Amino acid sequence: MPSRTVSHGSSGRLRGLFLVMVLVFLESSVFTLAFASSDQHSPTTAHSDGHKATDHGSHNNTGKAFPVLDLNYENVRVPFEISLWVLLASLMKLGFHLVPHLSNIVPESCLLIVVGLLVGGIIRGTGETVPPVLDSKLFFYILLPPIILDAGYFLPIRPFMENLGTILIFAVVGTLWNAFFVGGLLYGVCQIGTESSSILSRIGLLQCLLFGSIISAVDPVAVLAVFEEIHINELLHILVFGESLLNDAVTVVLYHLFEEFSGIGTVTLVKGFLGVISFFVVALGGVLVGVLYGILAAFTSRFTSHTRVIEPLFVFLYSYMAYLSAEIFHLSGIMALIACGAVMRPYVEANISHKSHTTIKYFLKMWSSVSETLIFIFLGVATVAGPHDWNWTFVTVTVILCLVARVIGVVGLTFIINKFRIVKLTTKDQFIIAYGGLRGAIAFSLGFLLEKDHFPEREIFLTAIITVIFFTVFVQGMTIKPLVELLAVKKKQEAKRSINEEIHTQFLDHLLTGIEDICGHYGHHHWKDKLNRFNKKYVKKCLIAGERSKEPQLIAFYHKMEMKQAIQLVESGGGIKLPSAMPSTVSMQNIQPRPPTKPAAERAIPQLSKTKEEEIRKILRTNLQRTRQRLRSYNRHTLVADPYEDGLSDLFLKKQKMFQIEKKVIFRMNHSGIKKAPNSRDEPVLCLHIPDNLANNQF
């Protein structure tokens, strides 16, 4: 009991200190905003006038005292306010984790939006104008890239590639379905006579489709914020988060397409066809830009062995350049960042030092965490800033249509996907995927980009977008964790990979590749093996320096595990006194091949002659090639009987063999005292002939 009392007292003091710091900061932020918006008769102006007077009459200004304390806020206003916002975000994140049991009740994103609402309300309550903090350029060029880079650099490649088909179907087909379903039905509702028909009737079909394309995309920031707290299993996490990453290309194309069509007013078949081509250009172009910059980053890291300090800088610069280069050509910057991070990571980590790897990891985590916190706070402030045009019919129908479209899209697409998946998506999985389709700041920023002159309904759109964001983040985000517990959905298991698991994984990959080769089927294991061979033979030699390019994957994985275990041992205090030169008892160096102690002649393998070796190679080459030519492509979904083969020849051969076996059996029976039962048919019912002298004996 005493210890519990002390802990409560310390937590209370921390809570009080935290609240005091927040209040002090809010007062300072209000002061800075009020001071920044003051008129020109400020101390800065007086100070500049004083300097001018000094310049003009320096000889006559002998009686003016030297300024001991001066005030010049305008020179530091922008960096000072940025620092205050970052400080507020950091304090809010710190306070969220200090308050006990708060994370089990309210998601962090909801609390941050509430903080933003409070800050905006305080600024407005003082009579000042709320600044437009969530500007589209600030969001897309400053706040969003670190979050996407962190997700792409640490993206689990294996589960992502294994579920790539499912992710693409949800991202492309699902987003198209949501956009046209919401936009089309919303246009029908706007045309129905209501009390506010004079307002809604002005919204045309193209404007509704544009709004549908904005509101239909799942937001990666909101998904990350909620799904990382509920610790959902890896399959569901990669499906929903992968969808939120890859639907960016569809959203960008639909947004620009309907925005242009709304300005023109007419849609032709040629423009629609060009819009379809634009989707592939935006998606594949973004991936290509990301791959190019990822290769450049990996190649640059090959020469940084003498300047380890700047190694993390290349990772951040090349990634940001990939994002900006994609945005220059209206390509998908999100897909460029994902491709850049995923491509550069295996080669960069093989070249850079362990300290640089740690720096990259924690700096990305810190940067993305602060950006995510600022996005939700700014979303709350922007909600207070307005302006809004509330329409009950439009807002209510939008929320309902978003939910209905999401449920129908997930259920319908999963019904088709499960026909081709080995691991089926259950009803619980479908519910979590549909319920986890959260909207966020990307939709708000896209709506904020609309110009008031071309889109008079911009304020109605922004109000509906904010309402949908609040509904998905607060209602769905707060209830998804209890629903996961109620439905007993499988959660993520924090299991450390072992050498045994890695060996079995590689063994199964090779085994499945061999099975596909024997069956004549070019599956994803076949192409994965081809890609790995090309990577090992050519790419690694160009992008990885030294002997690490020739290091097998298993040994490289072992070195990583050994390094992690050594760091954990040192941090726990058990390995501080170990000499650095002492090798590990289980190090791979102890099992490296050593020079043979015995003469080579005693252990020499019998050599084959050139003719024999050539014959064996010819036999293998011809038979393996015949396997490809003889067998049709095998697929478990298309394994049906061949209608051109009646099987009579096989049946005839089997019967002929059975007759021969039966004759041999009868012949041996006649010579061994075993004969057929009397008055029997041709069934194989046999009886044993016992001699009389043995039959009369009793046992």
Short account of what is shown:
Helices cover 69% and strands 1% of the residues. It has helices at residues 2-36, 43-56, 77-98, 108-125, 136-153, 157-162, 164-191, 197-200, 205-215, 220-230, 234-246, 248-264, 269-301, 311-328, 333-351, 354-385, 392-417, 427-435, 441-448, 458-487, 499-519, 524-543, 553-572, 610-630, 648-672, 692-695; strands spanning 674-676, 686-688. It is globular and about 130 Å long.
Describe this structure in words.
The chain has 699 residues and is mainly α. Among the domains are: 8-105, no CATH class; 136-489, Na+/H+ antiporter like fold. It has 26 helices and two strands. It has a two-stranded antiparallel sheet with strand order 1-2. Helix 3 (77-98) packs across helix 4 (108-125). Mean pLDDT is 77; it is low at 1-59, 575-593, 599-603, 625-645 and 675-699. Residues 87-485 form the Cation/H+ exchanger transmembrane domain. Its main location: membrane.
Helix content: 55-70%
Supply the number of helical segments. Answer: 26
Known CATH architecture of the domain at 136-489: Up-down Bundle
For the termini, the CA-CA separation is 85 Å
Assign the CATH topology of the domain at 136-489. Answer: Na+/H+ antiporter like fold
Order of helices and strands: HHHHHHHHHHHHHHHHHHHHHHHHHEEH
CATH class of the domain at 136-489: Mainly Alpha
**Uncertain segments:** 1-59, 575-593, 599-603, 625-645, 675-699
- Give me the count of strands: 2
What form results from the Cα inertia axes? globular
Could you tell me the strand content as a percent range?
A: under 5%
| CA-atom Rg in angstroms | 36 Å
- Largest beta sheet, briefly? 2 strands, antiparallel
